[in-house]
Amino acid sequence: MNWPNHGGQPEKLKQLFNIKMDRELLDFSANLNPLGPPSWLKATLDEHYEKITRYPDPSYSKSILSIADHEGVEQDNVLLTNGGAEAIFLVAKYFENKKAVIVHPTFSEYERACKHYDIDVEDIFYEQENSFNLPTSVIKEKIKENDVIFLCRPNNPTGTVIAEEDLQLYLEEGKKTETYIVVDEAFVDFLPTSIPSLSTWLASYPNLILLRSLTKLYTIPGLRIGYILAQPTIINVLKNEQIPWSVNSLVDAVIPKLLEDGSFLENTRAWLSEQSESVHGILAELDFYISPTQVNFYLLRDKKHPKRTEELFYFLLEHGILTRHTHNFKGLNGEFLRIAIRAKEENERLIAVLQNWRNES
Ligand SMILES: Cc1ncc(COP(=O)(O)O)c(C=O)c1O
Fold it and tell me: Aminotransferase class I/classII large domain: which residues (predicted)?
């Protein structure tokens, strides 16, 4: 089976599985915010329409200033990128021909980017049987032997968050051997306010590189907005590697307004806290395993039938629900489904179908 590499491709999946269905599939496979894009965004893009007739400001000065203010860092700590994906590939380029560790299961693009730049990658694994905790003693050892460790916090696909004390330990160890810790924070805005971004740590840890994306929070995968936060020396090297005008003028125009929209973020956190509590509670009662997630997606497996995940995937699909298979997440081998938290009525639809599965299985 030629499973697609990423979520959010309902039409492709319909074709692949030859599903004849007039109504649209409910897409729980992409982990985007159902509240987005913000209601004002369309009008603002229209307002800036004439900007497409000019090249963007190559220094993206207004956007960089707003990102630096938003993150509490200096402007020379920031590099604007064409989505989180470009951020990943630029950082991989920085470590070309070196040695890296990737902790799986995680986002597959770290591995692809490392391969692209001939990085010698060692795979290690979260402890699945131990709530997907990090194997801290193993990582400590690996830090000594490698140039960079790629971590995702919160992690895609588990939704778990590496504890601050563990990260501090890795960064301190890394300082001794000049090993860099790259932390992808693409989903950080979905965390409760009690777990902030690591951006304020940049001042204390020269070996910390943060990757960010605005894609998931604002539901704008088609716009492409991301950034890197790191020491100015690293930012300068990466800037030289970046293709000219990598970020377009419309994106450059809307970034300050996106970052200022505090009420959108508040509403998102309120929706997520309410919906995730309710969904997780009901699914646990129905005897499904849910990874200890803190964000807008989770891994699910039927505790009663842990070997029947693929069957469950098809059952959901036949009932109009698309989930994310986990065949290309190393260490999961398709044994779980990744499912997003969506709007209330959609979550209720998912739960009703899972209830049917439980009654029939
Ligand atoms: C962990 C993680 N980082 C980065 C990205 C890429 O983000 P963007 O769409 O902004 O390129 C994704 C997309 O799924 C992701 O899951």
Answer: 24-353
Split at pLDDT 50, 70, 90, the class of 24 is: confident
Q: Determine if ligand 1 sits within 6 Å of the CB of residue 85.
A: yes
pLDDT tens string 5-23:
666 666 666 666 666 666 6
111 Cα distance to chain centroid: 15
Regarding whether 292 and 326 lie in a shared domain, the answer is yes
Q: Does 117 score more than 90 pLDDT?
A: yes
Residue after which a domain boundary falls, among 233, 260, 287: 260
Report which ligand 1 atom has the smallest distance to the Cα of 221: 9
| Nearest CA residue ID for atom 5, ligand 1 | 84
Task: Note the helical H segments in the chain.
Answer: 10-16, 41-47, 61-71, 83-94, 109-116, 136-145, 164-177, 215-218, 232-241, 249-260, 262-285, 309-318, 344-360
Same domain? For 165 and 213 the reply is yes
**Local structure of 17: helix, strand or coil:** coil
For the Cβ of 154 lying below 6 angstroms from any atom of ligand 1, the answer is no
With a 6 Å cutoff on the Cβ, whether 159 touches ligand 1 is no
pLDDT, one tens digit per residue, over 150-187 is 999 999 999 999 999 999 999 999 999 999 999 999 99
283: containing domain: 10-30+263-360
CATH assignment of the domain containing 143? 3.40.640.10
Provide the residue type at 260 as one letter: E
CATH of the domain at 298: 3.90.1150.10
